[in-house]
Amino acid sequence: MNPILSYRPEGKLSSGNSRWLLCLILITVLVGLNLSLISAQEYFEETAPSKYRIEFTDKNNTPFTTDNPGEFLSPKALERRNRQNIPVDFNDLPVVPAYIDSLRSAGAGILTVSRWFNAVTVFIPHDSILDRIAAFTFVKRTGLQKVLQVPPVNSAVKPGIQQFNRSVSMDYGSSWWQTAIHNGTLLHDLGFQGKDVTIAVIDAGFYHADQLPAFSRLWDNGQILGHRDFVDETADIYEGHTHGMLVLSVIGSYLPGELIGTAPEASFYLLRSEDAGSEYLIEEDNWIAAAEFADSAGADIISSSLGYTVFDDPSQSHTYADMDGKTTRVTRAADQATSKGMLVVISAGNEGGSAWKYVGAPADADSVLATGAIDENGTVAYFSSRGPSFDGNVKPDVMAIGLGTYVIGYDGEVWQANGTSLSAPVISGLSACLWQANPGASALDMLTAVRKSADRFGQPDADYGYGIPDFNLAHVLLQVNQESQVFSEMISVFPNPFSDQLYIIFGSPVDDEVHVRLIDYAGREILNTLFPSFPGRTYLKFDSGLGHLIGGFYILEVKTGSFTGVSKLIKY
Fold first, then answer.
1. CA-to-CA distance for 410 and 415, rounded, in angstroms?
2. Going by C-beta distance under 8 Å and a sequence separation of 6 or more, which residues neighbour residue 68?
3. N or C: which end of the chain has fewer CB within 10 A?
4. Alpha-carbon distance 307 to 320, whole Å?
5. CA distance linking residue 128 with residue 94, whole number of Å
6. Fold assignment, 485-571
7. Whole-Å CA distances, 262 to 116, 315, 397, 565
8. Does domain 45-144 bear CATH number 3.40.50?
């Protein structure tokens, strides 16, 4: 029985009891209203109008099934997954359309939709809509979007003319070194320039990328596969911010004698997730939507020079403790993207000289290539964000030239600019060339090979991570996985047959000295070299003294303090 109302046999209340009852009813109503207001504040954090993220409880009664993934994933996306033995699973299923329709009917404007997180981001024009949404049983939770701050690219300066006296098949002009420092020119010379590899560039605007001469070949050859704006679908991304255009120029430019990008034959999706005019956490949701689009469209690589750390409102900021590879949703999304078979390359951030110092999200994800900045001498840039991630993982992963990187400026001329925003696309483009050369590799194979090829892989640190990757060596490492003759559990050799170059690959780092002998079939010792102990050695390279050998069979002997391996080699 309701304790406020008591039954009276005569069927009426005394005047005193009536006043008492009305007071109690009024108090109860007010308390109820107050509780309702508090509940709404807690549930939504703040009143509308604003933008909110809404998560759903389930995907029940969805019209989609994992048995028919062609309804929501492109043929290229399915081919990528099939090639890497990645199944289509529950989080690939789109959000239930009826749930989205219900939000629209309640008056919410749909901004982005995430199938991986089973969530949407909405615009709420009126307070009453919040209560309507809260009443839906399929709504799990909502939260106000927080303000963020993205490190900008440092101001550009005009370069001096510098020529490199190197013999290569392509005329890079002054930009040669930002590819050559990674031995990327060797891949280019072999004909691997990113053809048939698709890169999704997630960034801010791509100012005049549809007009500037540096990108003409991309358009003429149909290498721009499409674009999409996740900030404002009515906006023209080619009249927006220049940041994405600078990034694209590092990968896809083709101006012989001035600037040739690291993957001039790659294909691209140009995706805008960053709103340069405002700084809200909704941009993380935009990034997630862009990454999911990249997945469904069949992109192989995501290249993104965006980071999320400190907010304008300190109470809403990420902390260093959040950089643990699992806390921020954009970081979780980056790992999801890798799990779908895409290689994700992220700029480490430009906070190395600030109080923050560390990499931001999603560079803290454990399965992305977080890329820091060096100058042309291989010295870490003062602004390059440092590691490790809060959970102790090596960050940044690798380094590329981000201090004095050659780019296309807003005027179509070649400039130099600074920022890890520019080192990340260097690595993205070279990774496309590497994947073209090794189409059977998985995203994790690629990630591992690039890390292992870096010059500090055996002794990583918080400034350089694993160091400067050698993409020719990464190519060798991937080839070893597929083709090499393993003559010990601990040692592999590639190539075999060989010509004038030979790699000895160790299955795990070798710290002690290594003795290498090469003997011909007549028993004559052709090579006898003792390599001193070196912490973390993962390979040995022979690139001189072999070219003059006559063709035929040879015996290679490798000794360390713990094992000996012998292999038959063929010289051609």
1. 9
2. none
3. N
4. 13
5. 28
6. Immunoglobulin-like (2.60.40)
7. 31, 41, 19, 38
8. no
What does 321-366 look like in DSSP terms, one character per residue? GGTTTTSSHHHHHHHHHHHTT-EEEEE--S-TTSSS-B--BTTT-T
Helix (H, G, I), strand (E, B) or coil at 108: coil
SS3 label, residue 234: coil
Q: Which of 471, 516, 459, 466 is nearest to 493 (CA)?
A: 516
Of 371, 374, 419, nearest to 394 by C-alpha is 371
pLDDT level of residue 564 (50, 70, 90 thresholds):
confident
pLDDT digits (tens, 9 = 90+) for 366-404: 999 999 999 999 999 999 999 999 999 999 999 999 999
Q: Is 6 left (phi over 0), alpha (psi -120 to 50) or beta?
A: beta
CA distance 526 to 554: 9
Report the interhelical angle of 75-83 vs 282-297 (nearest 10°): 80
CATH number of 167-478: 3.40.50.200
Question: What residues does each domain of the chain span?
Answer: 1-42, 45-144, 167-478, 485-571
C-alpha dihedral, 252 to 255 to 260 to 263, nearest 10°: 30
- Please give the pLDDT value at position 38: 36
Tokens in use for 296? 């469904």
Spatial strand order of the sheet with 224-229 comes to: 224-229, 267-272, 198-203, 301-304, 343-347, 369-374, 398-401
On the CB side of 543, how many CA atoms lie within 13 Å of its CA?
5
Length of the chain in residues, anyone? 572
Look up residue 299 and give its DSSP letter: -
- Least Cα distance to 80 among 519, 408, 441 occurs for 441
The one-letter code for the residue type at 195 is K
What single-letter amino acid sits at 503? Answer: Y
CB 386 within 8 A of CB 463: yes
Residue with tokens 């004095």: 404
- Residues 154-212 pLDDT 10s: 333 333 333 333 536 789 999 999 999 999 998 999 899 999 999 999 999 999 999 99
CB of 290 closer than 8 Å to CB of 248: no
Q: Which two tokens stand for residue 435?
A: 């994947």
